[in-house]
UniProtKB/TrEMBL annotation:
Annotated source species: Zea mays (Maize)
Name of the featured protein: Protein kinase superfamily protein
Species classification: Eukaryota, Viridiplantae, Streptophyta, Embryophyta, Tracheophyta
GO molecular function term, any single one: polysaccharide binding
InterPro entries linked: Kinase-like_dom_sf, Prot_kinase_dom, Protein_kinase_ATP_BS, Ser/Thr_kinase_AS, WAK-like, WAK_GUB
Keywords: ATP-binding, Disulfide bond, Glycoprotein, Kinase, Membrane, Nucleotide-binding, Serine/threonine-protein kinase, Signal, Transferase, Transmembrane, Transmembrane helix
GO BP annotations listed: cell surface receptor signaling pathway
Main location (coarse class): membrane
Length: 887
């Protein structure tokens, strides 16, 4: 079974079914209200059980008195069955089948008896969450029975939505047969997700009631309505305080009590869903108990069982891997021999092992036929990620523990390299350090993970060496000339063969990456032919000195970026992405064709692409002064900082670029990764919005698209994170975080005085409620900006950061507001200059050069004042009209 990973999103809900039919309103009620508002236990009592059968769980859940944080987290173990089962206390309906640090996988079942004779025609089933911190994430329900319609009631019974109909054309159909397809014949499937409460209504069909008495051989499906879950998950958070900031103020009840733990606002930063605790990076365990977070201690270098089976067919399974309990070093190394005759050795349903290379730290794998080749992942609950591999390779690297060699050797009882002739090596991925592995020393071979596992290689005698040397000399002298000639010929042929192979490979990639499609798009568009260029791989190799690592200027989640110089002396940035799915190639080509036509002074220009590599390369204009993030958050020793006028100008330029993408381009483009590190600054410190690796094109007639969640924590729109629906207001939220960065000069993820981490946006919104804005912003901002300007930008940021996207402004409104502030500031600077030139530099530092163009627009000095007033009043009127406010 493939297990789910722990995730900071996940919460938990208690579900209870009861069914009591009556003549007026027969119902099966699901759920009991058990509030978390009551007293909570900061720590569990000693000796509390932490398992039920094969299932283990951690505090804040518990079995027994004073073993859970609050009654809502109280569990009970039913040991009367052959395999003990875990339930919520006082709830025999909702069984817990899998546990994660913030989620529970559950199984639900309930039967509602049908009253024969047509007395009752309507049956109800209701559910509501057990507390304010509990949410039903999703539930897939199979509903079996005969001849009734299923509705979901909404708005307190004021309306209902029909979900499906169950019919029984064959009166003798069995429950097993009905559930095989569950397509409406005897069984109907219903999907529910992210609900705090719901009610289902089952209405018997009239012809079904008439047929009920005519079939003496009818099945048991006619006697009851059975509701069972095929897959369901419940999610939880701590809700004694609304956010991490307020929770840390209540130290007596603060849940994140372990060292090396951090607090995170629940469900994407929403202020009303409490918080969750997680161990720091590199630490694992339970953050809700003292010293619960620790470095990886999951490796056990000793076999707990004798005579372990060490093969599956013709595949050897050496320690630390194993097939049986007690035969492997950690749960992550447990393998399953499904068929000895065919040597079928598997990690899970997706990945099959073909060979284990102990000394090289590699495992050869292949994908089972039911699954497509993708990024290699094996999830095991409470185990770190120690495998590194991708669908591009059949070999996967692995580490034995998420520790450095120095850390591992400090714990002799848990150190994996137990063979005397072995050594420790670090294992790194392209992004991070993974852990350590063991290897036999040079001149030794074998298994370094078992005692005396590394054995010395055999050494040849002196006579053998002399014989081989003499034989080599004789052969060399007799055939030297012939070999030399053959070598020269072979070299020439080999070079030609390699050139042909490379040429064919590049041609293959060009066709695979839809190069012909892009050429057709270019030839059919007059503008595109002038702007878009399809570069050859040779062009870009020359530009980057064969992709010299010293040319790397950046890397991130989407790939590497190289600095290059084209043959026409243009300096460019060449982006080499990590991967792209086969089915996304056509969409990628269309995006290249459209993005290449974007011509905006504040958007990094896309010159073209190269399609002769496995993953296409993108060629952008090179921006010389780095990113806004680097300048805002670099150390003061750099000697350079942006003035308030620069910040307003850069914010307005970036907002204008995003407005252009949303509304002015031929096809709407949602950036999806707006952040200060994606706002680059050229030689004149003009803003250039960059990095469209996560962007999505949207037809004009669509307001949103549903996508896999992508973005950067600290900037990610909570509503998009929660629903998966991307719209233009998702970029507005992220831009609001950038405005807060400009005001506070702090990074999007900050560390409080207590050492916990939280989103800058949450900190800003919380502090805005308790302190004057001028006390929150950076010292430099207070010195250079007026209080009115600070309050205006803070108010605009607050509007952008609203949880409901419908309450946020558009990027057009954001840009207009910023331009109004710049216009007001420019005018005030000119007025000060006219009346008191000697103090103007103090009030408008660096502003004069920024507004030179504006002064020209105003015309001569004689009528500058009146022209300014007309333009300012027009802009202010347009902005207020767009917001729907009186003016």
């Amino acid at each position: 079974m493939r297990l789910l990973p722990d995730s900071p999103l996940l919460l938990c809900v208690v579900l209870v079914f009861t069914a009591i039919p009556s003549e007026q309103d027969s119902s099966g009620v699901l759920g009991t209200s058990q509030s978390q508002a009551g007293g909570s236990n900061a720590l569990p009592a000693a000796g509390c059980p932490r398992s039920c059968g094969n299932l283990t769980f951690d505090y804040p859940f518990g079995i027994g008195s004073n073993c859970s944080r609050s009654p809502a987290f109280s569990l009970t173990c039913d040991s009367t069955t052959q395999t003990p089962r875990l339930y919520f206390e006082d709830d025999s309906i909702t069984e817990v089948v899998a546990y994660g640090s913030t989620w529970l996988q559950i199984s639900l079942s309930q039967a509602i008896p049908i009253m024969h004779g047509g007395v009752v025609s309507t049956y109800n089933m209701s559910w509501k969450s057990s507390g304010s911190g509990f949410t039903l994430f999703y539930a897939n329900l199979n509903i079996t029975g005969c001849d009734f319609d299923i509705y979901q009631l909404q708005d307190r019974h004021a309306s209902s939505v029909k979900l499906c109909t169950v019919t029984c054309p064959d009166a003798g159909i069995t429950d097993k047969v009905a559930r095989q397809n569950c397509n409406g014949t005897g069984c109907c499937s219903v999907n529910l997700d992210v609900l705090e409460a719901f009610q289902l209504q089952f209405v018997l069909r009239s012809h079904g009631r008439a047929r009920l008495g005519t079939h003496t051989s009818r099945s048991s499906l006619w006697d009851s309505i059975n509701v069972t879950s095929t897959d369901a998950e419940i999610l939880w958070s701590i809700v004694d305080q609304p956010t991490c900031a307020s929770a840390m103020d209540d130290s007596a009840n603060y849940a994140c009590v372990s060292n090396h733990s951090n607090c995170y606002d629940g469900l994407g930063g929403r202020l009303d869903l409490g918080y969750i605790c997680r161990c720091d990076g590199g630490y694992r365990g339970n953050p809700y108990v003292p010293n619960g977070c620790s470095r990886d201690k999951g490796y056990n270098p000793k076999e707990q069982k004798e005579n372990c089976q060490r093969s599956c067919g013709n595949i050897s399974v050496p320690f630390p891997f194993g097939l049986e309990e007690g035969c492997f070093a950690r749960r992550l190394f447990q393998l399953n021999c499904t068929n000895t005759a065919s040597s079928s050795l598997q990690f899970d349903d997706e990945h099959q092992v073909t060979r284990i290379h102990i000394n090289e730290g590699l495992v050869d794998i292949k994908y089972t036929p039911l699954y497509e080749q993708e990024m290699f992942r094996v999830y095991v609950s409470n185990e770190p990620g120690l495998y590194i591999g991708s669908g591009e390779s059949s070999s996967v690297q692995w580490a034995v523990a998420n520790l450095t060699c120095h850390e591992a050797m400090q714990n002799k009882s848990g150190y994996a390299c137990v063979s005397i002739s072995s050594t420790c090596l670090g294992v790194n991925s392209t992004d991070d350090y993974i852990g350590y592995r063991c290897k036999c020393l040079h001149g030794f071979q074998g298994n370094p993970y078992i005692h005396n596992g590394c054995q010395a290689l055999p050494i040849n005698g002196e006579s053998t060496k002399k014989q081989n040397l003499l034989l080599g000399i004789v052969i060399g002298l007799s055939s030297g000339i012939g070999i030399l000639l053959l070598g020269l010929c072979a070299t020439v042929l080999l070079r030609k063969w390699k050139r042909d192979i490379k040429k064919q490979q590049r041609k293959k990639y060009f066709q695979k990456n839809k190069g012909l499609l892009l050429e057709q798009l270019i030839s059919s568009d007059e503008n595109a032919s002038e702007k878009t260029k399809i570069f050859t791989l040779e062009d870009l190799e020359k530009a980057t000195n064969n992709f010299d690592p010293t040319r790397i200027i950046g890397h991130g989640g989407h790939g590497m970026v190289y600095k290059g110089i084209l043959s026409d002396q243009r300096v460019v940035a060449i982006k080499r992405s990590k991967n792209i799915e086969e089915g996304e190639i056509s969409q990628f080509i269309n995006e290249v064709a459209i993005l290449s036509q974007i011509n905006h002074r504040n958007i990094v220009k896309l010159f073209g692409c190269c399609l002769e590599t496995e993953v296409p390369l993108l060629v952008y204009d090179f921006i010389s002064n780095g990113s806004l993030f680097e300048i805002l958050h670099s150390s003061s020793s750099s000697g350079f900082s942006l003035s308030w006028d620069d910040c307003l100008r850069i914010a307005a330029e970036a907002a204008g670029a995003l407005y252009y993408l949303h509304s002015a381009a031929s096809v709407s483009i949602f950036h999806r990764d707006v952040k200060s590190s994606n706002i680059l600054l050229d030689s004149n410190y003009t803003a250039k919005v960059s990095d469209f690796g996560a962007s999505r094109l949207v037809p004009i007639d669509q307001t949103h698209v549903v996508t896999n969640i992508q973005g950067t924590f600290g900037y990610l729109d909570p509503e998009y994170y929660h629903t998966g629906q991307l719209n233009d207001k998702s970029d507005v939220y992220s831009f609001g975080v950038v405005l807060v960065e400009l005001l506070l000069r702090r990074e999007p993820i900050i560390t409080s005085e207590t050492g916990s981490k939280q989103n800058l946006s949450n900190y800003f919104l919380w502090e805005m409620k308790t302190r004057p804005t001028k006390e929150i912003v950076a010292t430099q901002v207070c010195e250079e900006a007026t209080e009115e300007e600070i309050n205006s930008i803070a108010s605009l940021a607050e509007m952008c950061l609203r949880l409901n996207s419908g309450e946020r402004p558009t990027m057009k409104q954001v840009e207009m507001n910023l331009q109004l502030l710049r216009t007001k500031r420019s005018n005030s600077c000119h007025v000060v200059q006219d009346n008191a030139e000697e103090i103007q530099p103090l009030l408008c530092t660096g502003a004069e050069s920024r507004y030179e163009t504006f002064s020209i627009t105003l015309g001569g000095s004689s009528n500058a004042e009146s022209q300014y007033s007309q333009r300012f009043n027009s802009l202010e009127h347009d902005f207020k009209s767009s917001l729907g406010t009186p003016h």
